[in-house]
Structures are given as structure tokens and as C-alpha cells.
Write a structure and sequence with these properties.
Keywords: Calcium, Disulfide bond, Heme, Hydrogen peroxide, Iron, Metal-binding, Oxidoreductase, Peroxidase, Secreted, Signal. The chain is mostly helical and 220 residues long. The chain is built from nine helices and four strands, in the order αβαααβααβααβα. Residues 1-19 have low confidence and may be disordered. The structure holds protoporphyrin IX containing FE.
Amino acid sequence: MPRFSLTLVLAFFFFKSYCFGALQYGFYDGKCGSSDVEDIVHGVVNSWCNIDPTRGFDVIDDAKAAVEAVCPGVVSCADIIVMATRDAVSFSGGGTYNVQTGRRDGLVSLASNVDLPPPFISVSDSIAAFAAKGLNVTDMVYLFGGHTVGVAHCSNFQDRLYNFNQTGGPDPAMDSLLLTTLRLRCPQNSSVNNTANLDQGLLSSTVVDTSFHQQRHSSD
Ligand code: HEM
């Protein structure tokens, strides 16, 4: 075999075995003895959802601790977040799907490196922010569907209820029923920073469905 071809064959097997960049289904199968990593994460998420589905990132810490107890130093937090999200979506009625794993955690975690759009960002600025991350408008609309569950603190939109753009009145573009509902939830000058559901549907605020998008559409 010519030397060039031999090099290619060797390179193929080298990269096939050590291709760290490629995610795959079942990446952890067999890497933790007889323990099933996805099952462990699933169990933690389910017990959290049964106790208090509104709780936050602590569930990731619990899942990480449960996985580390049987399989130390193997499973990344990045993968645990992806698996736990999949299970929370499924628990909330959003259907089931498989996820690829094999991510590595970063070695640096600094708040100063985080670049999140602010709550008051306009649609056009949001499109630009997503584009800067290589995501197009369709990606953005799909991802905004993540707001089908969860809450927003009154402090993040209080100005639109009472003093939009320093006018002393509400945002004129806001639906009047929504305005009334949100004002009840977020009284002016309240000392408590209440929350309001991101999905305003009475029966769907904790369900992963399309109602967030439907509400957006009907308000256009
Ligand atoms: C331009 C992009 C985005 C903006 C400006 C934005 C803005 C916000 C704001 C203001 C809140 C309320 C936070 C609070 O008051 O505690 C929120 C909550 C939330 N967002 Fe977004 N968001 C964006 C993108 C996304 C994406 C891409 C997802 C997921 C795919 C997402 C999922 C969520 C979830 C699940 C919550 C609820 C959190 C909770 O209940 O504690 N958001 N978002």
C-alpha cells in the first residue's frame, strides 16, 4: 500500500476513535459500569418535578451529585443540563426525544464572559443578538418557545405597566386585558418583586406546548 494511503487509513482510525468533537446518542453507555447515567438523571428530575416543578438550577446540582456518586469524573455538567432539560420537557407534556451527549465542560466560568440580551431588547436587536451566535430568525422563534413555561419578575416589565418610556402611562401597544391582569399581579410601588407566568394561558402555564406562540400570534 502506498505510504500516502496508509497514512490516510491510519488517520481515519485515529480520528474515528478519538473524535472528541462529535456528539452521539448513548455516549455514556458502558462508561459507568452497569449504571445508566440517563436513568439516574431522569430519576432526580422526576422527583424534583413531583415536589416542586418551579425550582431552578439546584436540580442540576442534585443530578450531578447522584451521577458522581456512582461514576466520578466522567459525566459533564453540560450533558446533565441537556438530559435534565429533556426530562423536564417530557414531564411537562412536551413529548419525548433522545439527546446526543459527549460534551465537555469548560474550564473557565466567569460572569463577565456571559453575554445575555437584556429583558427589554427589541425584536430587531434580538434578531441581531441571535445572528451574532450563528442562529437565524427561525432558530430564534423556535427557541423563544422555551418561554412556554416559567416566570418573569415584575421588576423586568414594571415600566411597561406604569411608566413606559417615562410617559407616566402604560405601553400603548399592550393588550388591555393583559395590562389589567399584569397590574393585579404587579401592583405599583409594591415592596415585593412578584412573578407572572411567561405563558399567560390559564391551563397551560406549566405545560410545554405551543400556547406561548399562539398568544404571541393573537396579540399581533
Ligand atoms: C433575546 C433572548 C431572550 C430574552 C431577552 C429573554 C428574556 C427573559 C426574561 C426577561 C425572563 C424572566 C426572568 C425573570 O424575571 O426572572 C426569561 C425567563 C425565561 N426564559 Fe428567556 N429570554 C430569551 C431567550 C430565551 C431562550 C432562548 C430560552 C430557552 C430556549 C429561554 C427560556 C426561558 C425560561 C425557561 C424562562 C423562565 C425562567 C424561570 O422560570 O425562572 N429564554 N427570559
